[in-house]
């Protein structure tokens, strides 16, 4: 495998901690780059870092209990709108961004800040590459897979931006060395393909074990990944599109 000079030589993995759901409520960003070596293999790069961000609002006790970031730490930090671009658009070599459950980061890392960079979602790609695993959270993948070279202490504490980005980067490195980036981008552009039914009376069962009536019910679920997974099984089984899934008012898959 040789390096394609037209392809990005680095992917920037990012992770955000937030003080709320507003688009400027970021209170920390961490990043860890993954780079392509001359032999075409992907590896963890030296470029990593973290910055506190002033969310412009107090951080609630409930939120501090998750990431342990204090108001005093962010009081003199720059606002998200002033710092985002410098991290998300560091240079021509980084044309792709990545995150675990990237939809969350994309709520805050809008094209205004990313320059329209493509995104890889390592959660969606993990379910495609390692469907036999029982769970797919960032930390569960860490301990189920034990990626080579991951320094335990650098991945701690969990739920802080740089340690979480560092862990995600090891999953991404292994994904990039298994399949082309174009495949990861394609998977990331679709809803998640769940390996098994995640909830309800059929929880834990493979999609192939469900009857047609159960599948037709699930393609109208509120969660887009659940709908997509049920519809994919219908298409596999019958060789034609199943019932058109309805658009939900709000997604809810956890």
UniProtKB/TrEMBL annotation:
Species per Swiss-Prot/TrEMBL record: Brevundimonas variabilis
Gene3D superfamilies reported for this sequence: Ribonuclease H-like superfamily/Ribonuclease H
Domain Exonuclease per the UniProt entry, residue ranges: 10-181
Class of enzymatic activity (EC top level): hydrolase
Keyword tags: Hydrolase
Highest taxon in the source lineage: Bacteria
Alphabetized InterPro entries for the sequence: Ribonucl_H (IPR013520), RNaseH-like_sf (IPR012337), RNaseH_sf (IPR036397)
Protein name per UniProt: Exodeoxyribonuclease X
